[in-house]
Amino acid sequence: MGNGYAKRGISMVELLVAIAIIGILAVLIATRLRTPSVRAAANEFRAVLQQSRLESVKRNRPVSVVWDAVAEQFDVDVYTSGDTTSVASCSLAVTTAVQSLDLDDFRAVGVVTTMTSNGIIWLPGGLARDCDASALAASTTTFSDGTTSVAVTISSGGRVDIQ
Questions:
Q1: Are strands 149-154 and 95-102 parallel, antiparallel or unpaired?
Q2: In degrees rounded to 5, what are phi and psi of residue 136?
Q3: pTM value?
Q4: pLDDT in tens, 59-107
Q5: Residues 128, 116, 98, 40: what is their CA dihedral angle, to the nearest 10 degrees?
Q6: Per-residue 3-state assignment (H helix, E strand, C coil) for 73-105
Q7: For residue 65, what are the β-bridge partners?
Q8: Which of 10, 64, 102, 135 could form a disulfide with 90 if both were Cys (CB 3.0 to 4.6 A apart)?
């Protein structure tokens, strides 16, 4: 039986256990809701490709997007002189840097690309070419963190997709 007193409230141990469970659940939910670094890097690269294409049309100048493996970044450059219809290489013409996409901004993300000379050139008409000025065959740039991979493809017609 009892001593006549009704038990009310919760003990300190019960309160600490409840707080610990809520904390663990919050961490699990937060990690599931956050966009993975690989997906964020792929989305950012797609945006850089689309923006560089628009920049080429807007400026009526070729724009190159080139992977720099040493600096681990994609560099976007606008050709500022010479014949804009026959660009011979991504690195031989006079260019002005427009922007870059640095992979250091994304946790532990690596990149592998099938682009010729590790880059493409957007021509003023919106068409893409390989850095050796040949017609662009579909190319794929894959972002990976060891467990997850996301591929960004550029079709021969210049369409940019994430797979």
A1: unpaired
A2: -75, 120
A3: 0.75
A4: 888 888 888 888 888 999 888 876 555 555 676 566 788 888 888 888 8
A5: 90
A6: EEEEEEECCCCCCCCCCCCCCCEEEEEEEEHHH
A7: 76, 120
A8: 64
